[in-house]
Amino acid sequence: MIAAILLAIVLFSWILPHIIPVSHWLRYYVCYLTAFIYSFIGCLFFIVLIIILPKKYFRRCVVLVAQIISKILGIEWEFRNESNLMKNHGKGIFVANHQSMFDILGLLYISQNFGDCVPVTKKELYYFWPIGLLGYLSGSIFIDRGNSLAAITNLNFAANAHFHRYSQAQILIFPEGTRNKFGNNFLPFKKGAFRLAIYHQLPIFPIVISPYYFIQKNQFFGKGKIIINFLEPISTTNLENDDVEKLMEKTRTIMENKFNILKYEVNLNNLQNMLMKKEKKLKF
Question: What is the sign of the dihedral through the CA atoms of 148, 151, 157 and 159?
């Protein structure tokens, strides 16, 4: 009975985003609800798989679910310069701008190209099961954003263990500290990722995610393409604690410059697509 109900929910949430017109405001809420349903059920499924399957097969399942959710929602991903992920043998601190819950979806989509990567996230997420339980089982690092000292201590302890355990250990941090809901410019960066990189003498790997131009809060959830660009790693060799601020600002400048370029590109492509659709309508 429970299985039948879950199957009905999955099928219903699969079909609904396709039958609601893209321009209708209701599609916004339906798409978020669909993403939540698939994430929730997927986590239940993954909790079992992460225990019984080897890591490479587990990752394939994660990628498959990320592809399915993206297809349902109408999000297309383009990944650029993935080869940068494996420079310096892939070991380092990944930093990415954070605009939406779908950032994680895009990164999971390409997660097979990563090494042994774990994200840093707020501790409140741990109590949101089954997502929190899956995060715990997969090695996510939970920190208390309201207690800086405790957050730094926990992050350092977990990072030491992770880097000691894996030869291609990576840690993913969103240096803005929270979602940038407006997505026009970056929020101020936190220092944690850069302190960690200098302490371990590991490079910073900047990841820039283009704007979600086809999503407008509470109004519109269209279809479109998001570009995730993996930039050249930034060396921390011979840097010391006094260089944290300099490294942080350098990284932020590089990422923001690339973000502005991507913003211009996706907006231009969107405008061209709109003009092409109007031309087709006029012909008919």
Answer: negative
